[in-house]
Amino acid sequence: MSLSWSQGIRDFLGMYGHYKQALEGGIIELRTGSAPTTANSAVTGTLLCTLSKASGTVGKEVLSRCKITFGGSGGSIDAVTVDGEDILGGAVSYDTSLAVTSVAVAAKINSYNPPAGKKYRAVGTNGILYLEALPGSGTSPNGRDTTCTPTTMTCSATSGFGTDCQICRCVVRGQCGNRRCGLFQNSWISQ
Q1: Whether pTM exceeds 0.85
Q2: Which of 64, 85, 139, 183 would be 161's cystine partner, CB 3.0–4.6 Å?
Q3: What's the distance, Cα to Cα, between the start and end of the chain in Å?
Q4: Which DSSP letter does residue 165 get?
């Protein structure tokens, strides 16, 4: 039997980390029937049991999140820091609209590799930047001071990371109606 990796886990490994970090806190579902055609195929068969390291009770990891809202019509975002650590890696100039600029800031954060290592992933949409701690960090980033330094533009961050930010993680896949969606929604990995 061969091992198949979904596009979601390949994307994660290419941008954020390693297998251990991607699979930490995960579960294995044993189901009836034949294996899906691809790792991205929908789940099939009846669930027989769920295997985890959690001694009977499976709890999903609750990751720390933060939201930064941009304003203005020109200038740049010069820095985004978490507890004084720069996670942006250089200024991003305003480009066309706040929506386009927020996507550019997220792309810069996701491509930058800070000296202390990558700890956050970002999604930009409609002038808002969503930051989320990577899997394996749990709620340890809660309360960390998050700041944004603009030139001409404005930006306001939540007071710090917390799990009560209520952002829709599904923004990563562009589906906000289904709370179960996320980076690894597929038949092989459940988040």
Answers
A1: no
A2: 64
A3: 24
A4: G
